[in-house]
Amino acid sequence: MWPFKKSQAKAAPEHYLVILGRARELATEESWRRFNALTEINPHPLFGHEQMQDNLMKKWGGSNEEMFEFARTRAAACPGTHVPLIVVRAHLEYAHARAHREDE
After folding, report:
1. What is the number of structural domains in the chain?
2. For each successive 10 residues of the chain (104 residues), what is the average pLDDT?
């Protein structure tokens, strides 16, 4: 049994607050506040980490450095979970963005 099963239902609204922060173009500080609230309830939600990573992507006003730093830091903080997959996701996003720049 997963150690955070009970907290998954409580964390669901916080997941969506992270997404809505990006949709509403809120400041990065507010995105971090929402993400931190999520991880207080459930420290290892892959979906929540992916959404925060999206907030830090260059195409959403962040930077490649922020995206990679977040991915590496959170992967190191969450061993034995699916969270380290966001490092691969960061590399895929970077390669995709680079390919689109070269096409133009």
Report:
1. 1
2. 53 79 88 93 92 95 97 97 98 94 65
So what's the pLDDT on residue 1? 41
CA distance 85 to 103: 27
Cα(62)–Cα(72) distance, integer angstroms:
16
List, in sequence order, the alpha helices (H) in 24-84: 28-41, 46-56, 64-77
- Asked if residue 13 lies in contact with residue 41, where contact means CB atoms within 8 angstroms, the answer is no
Nearest 5°: the CA angle 84, 72, 27 is 105
Q: Which amino acid is at 88?
A: V
Q: What is the pLDDT of residue 2?
A: 45
Domain of 86 in residue numbering reads as 5-103
pLDDT at 9: 62
Residue among 53, 47, 50 at smallest CA distance from 12: 47
Query: Looking at this protein, which amino acid is placed at residue 87?
Result: V
